[in-house]
């Protein structure tokens, strides 16, 4: 009974004949009864049975379901992501350890017999169904780009990762510049300002202790790494991240990390920071000198160089300064539907149990449609408006996915607001979109249907 | 231009006044001139206009003495012009409002255009000037902003605020050296003037030059040779720059100069003492300062506060000892500290402090309260060292020692016997007092709950009521006394104690008494009466008591019709549990299970049997019964509770983690909708060592 339970989940019996299975099953059952084995291996003889984690409205905890999928991958198992099947369900070999972990984490599951599983696969792969199976094979290594004074509740992604119990590593400027990004499959950019304007909080918070401390910390770090200005350091970091994506990395960003990142890339050869940010005035022709060929997602945007305005550019819509007056009860955005068999990537990224998701604000809430590059795919939009909430694109061998807004379950999250308790939002569709991204790099690349 | 017009008007009127000419021609000339000036004055700023018009009317009335028809004409003209002027005022106000609304909506170009027009019409108006300055800055037209301020400086020569502002504009324009020179100039004009340092530092802070601002404040202090200057500013800036030692030194300086600002300093310091490095730095400085000024009470109070913030009550006690002595408080400071330590559950330190008050300040009014506090601290320390079982009711009857303890009571060896001794001596020393009442009440509680010495408890609670100083304690004592009577099986006596308590004006107290009476009815088999009382309690569902009442009510309702005999026997067995006759109660329940195999009662009875086995230390039997509840009673609604109990026994009694986890997992697997699921999940994770 007390044997360590750290062995890998295997499915050795899948290929065996029924007789063999029965014999081995009997032996293993005896071992279990004798307390010799209490691990996954002992139970893998049920591997023809499948464990289905439904992701439709019957699921008790959608967010932790992603953690279970990740946990199975971490332990050497495989997970089939059933795109568009009951909200993008997960299917894995039945195993008592997985079942137990589901129960402990409060994730509901269903056990399928071999026949039911076969029928399910057949249904999902039928040509007339907009569904498909994506095999997840390897737990991606996740890095989150955050400053040292970061708290997990500052950022929705880390909040979601913590809640789903998906492990991640924190990295910052030094790690990025020293080339450590290649060690990770997936990079999330914390609510960061890559333009070097300290989030443009100057107008309201310039006397706040946290603002002063942050500025000093950043300046110190820039000096330590050999940069005269924070903005210069951030531009170099932005370029390193772009190289990482080009080399095959997956980048995910939310809120102001999205537009500020592209602005930093566009402003590679121009100073856009005012005197209170970097000690000297900006380039008088800053706008004209922007190089949009360097950006990933946006082009032809106009900078908002007023240091007293809480806004970077006209990419953000609605504008953050003055803050928009909207009724949260009527603010929703719609997820686009893609062909699971032909466009598996955007399909993966938009898996959800609802098609219409509750809106939420952020320093960057949504992206202006007219400023998106043509190569960028729109995944979600506020119907009837220019507001694009969720985008995806390729760069080199990698991809980037950007999601507007700050916290899917806190409509207008302000500085100093208490953290969101995800125990109260276990089925959050907005948070699901974040977690789709985490599993996306685990997908085995398969040949595209043509 | 308008300034010149105003001067002209003034000069004209003054010249007229000086000349003293009285002839008509001169009068006509004067009136005509003043009329002209009056007309022109309609285009000068509103305030000036009104003052000048008033002055003009006064001068004419005085000079001419008589209101001639000419003057009436002038007056009419003036009225017409005033109407025009009023219209222009309205136009300006409208423009200003428009400019401000453009400003708020971020349309700076339009705001600037309006401000320019407004300032041109009234160059001395500060509101227009400041609006235009803001607009130029927003539009990054630093050169224009600089020109604007320089023009203003022509009128308001050497205005330090404007010069400092100009420095800020040069800084924003990237001309840091000019900015520095201007700022230095502001100070150099009057280096003893603290306002000038503040103006300059403010500009520097505005432009994120925090360290420079700090240096300016320090320079100002040195120049004025006054340590009282800029304490708050330096402290705040130092804290923001994470120079916590420097910040603390400023606050210490503030305490030295104004000891009455202690609470203000504490508030300010708490902005950084919440951080480990901030707290350490502050502690280092304060300890050093206290060594340097050992007689400063406020400084020691600040140090003691810091120690308490870090939960170091022992160190805080050391400080309060000195504070008490230095301030001649006669133990009051120590007593207050002890109270605070007790509130923070630091009973050992609280006990020490109370004892010091008792030993060293015998003549004080606070002595009885200190003794009571000490006894309470000893009682709490005894409860902490009490290692009795985890089930709340699992306190076995232990005889009260009849002989006094050989060793004296002390906080290093706390015991309930020691606490009893302390309470007894308190009641003897201060008879007929509130302290005596509280002491008797605590004695009763210890005797009843810790030693199950029922006679001793009755005597103590009875003494509480005889003192009759405090109605609240008397109520609690009567309630407890009735409980003791129940334990003594004197149910009618208990009832006679409860009934008068129903007159309590407090609703929650009346409900509590009602519930106790309902329990008595249940024990005595009066189920109808019990149900009536319980129903009246359940109407208020917001109280915890309502839950208990509902539980008992449903149990009675479920069994009263189908198995009245079983319910009666069950109640009697329950009464035995209340009387802590556990072995007898166990036998009775086992008998009930054999006699009445009614399914609704069976699982409740089995749960009672399991609990009694646990109270009697028969863990294996308890587990067996609980397993039977789970496995042999498929329709039972208590199966999840029994399974949870199995997990608790493994976890808390047998310390068998794997089996505890397995038992909790069974709840998740078998009873996914149970109320215990979340708790089971939490316990599994804690036992696995997960970070949750």
Summary tags:
heterodimer; A: 450 residues; alpha+beta; Alpha-Beta Plaits; Rossmann fold; 2 domains; ten-stranded mixed beta sheet; five-stranded antiparallel beta sheet; 14 helices; 15 strands; disordered N terminus; B: 692 residues; mainly alpha; Serine Threonine Protein Phosphatase 5, Tetratricopeptide repeat; elongated
Care to describe what's here?
The complex is a heterodimer of chains A (450) and B (692). Chain A is of the alpha+beta class. Chain A has two domains: 18-136, 2-Layer Sandwich (Alpha-Beta Plaits); 142-324 and 361-419, Rossmann fold (3-Layer(aba) Sandwich). Chain A has 14 helices and 15 strands. In chain A, strand 14 and strand 15 (398-403) form a beta hairpin. In chain A, helix 3 (62-74) crosses helix 6 (156-164), helix 3 (62-74) runs parallel beside helix 14 (429-439) and helix 10 (230-246) packs across helix 11 (256-266). Chain A is globular. Mean pLDDT of chain A is 86; it is low at 1-21 and 27-47. By secondary structure, chain B is mainly α. Among the domains of chain B are: 2-101; 568-688, Serine Threonine Protein Phosphatase 5, Tetratricopeptide repeat, CATH 1.25.40.10. Chain B is 77% helix and 0% strand. Chain B is built from 35 helices and no strands. Chain B has helices at 2-19, 24-41, 46-64, 69-104, 108-121, 126-138, 142-155, 160-172, 176-189, 194-206, 210-224, 231-240, 244-257, 262-273, 276-292, 297-309, 313-327, 332-343, 347-360, 367-385, 416-429, 434-450, 454-467, 471-487, 491-501, 507-523, 527-538, 544-560, 564-578, 582-595, 599-615, 619-632, 639-653, 657-670, 677-688. In chain B, helix 1 packs parallel to helix 3 (46-64), helix 2 packs antiparallel against helix 3 and helix 3 runs antiparallel to helix 4 (69-104). Chain B is elongated and about 115 Å long. The interface between A and B is medium-sized, with 29 and 33 residues.
